[in-house]
Amino acid sequence: MMKKALIVVDMQKDFINGALGTKEAEAIVDNVAEVVKTFDGDVIFTRDTHTDKYMETQEGRNLPVLHCIKDTEGWQIDRKLASLRTDAMQIFDKPSFGSVALAEYLQAQKELESVTLIGLCTDICVISNALLIKAFLPEVEISVIEKCCAGVTPQSHQNALEAMKMCQIKIV
What we know:
The chain has a six-stranded parallel beta sheet with strand order 3-2-1-4-5-6. It has helices at residues 13-16, 23-38, 58-62, 79-82, 100-107, 122-136, 154-166, and strands at 4-9, 42-48, 90-94, 114-120, 141-150, 170-171. By secondary structure, the protein is α/β, with parallel strands linked by helices. Helices cover 38% and strands 22% of the residues. Helix 6 (122-136) packs parallel to helix 7 (154-166). The chain is globular and about 40 Å long.
């Protein structure tokens, strides 16, 4: 039975050094790799997943930058990270910021004690998934490792961390 889960959110090429990459995202890759390598529990990845019709979606109209198109290089999980835990690598592809399927999967784990989130972007997909998981599992400890996350901007990263604190998500 799963006791602890690490959720690695959207550590994909397009968010690290591709279409929407930032120097802050590049700077956390080694920190994320260290946590993935040493985590004592199940490691689950999410992958932002769009189609070539992305620009026709609500998100595409609001963020008109093609990214994470399924089966492209930018959609792939960072190679360094993907190679660390191939034994038990689970991936949830998600068409939007948060994954209801991931939250439902975690909810079905009867002995789950804690969920830790790391990845990109703190202010969009990390916070969306943290709040979804908190809604599905209100009594499970949810935490976010600050040094393993990066936001669209440093300020929006800090804003997201503060918002999660207010929702009883531990920032470590």
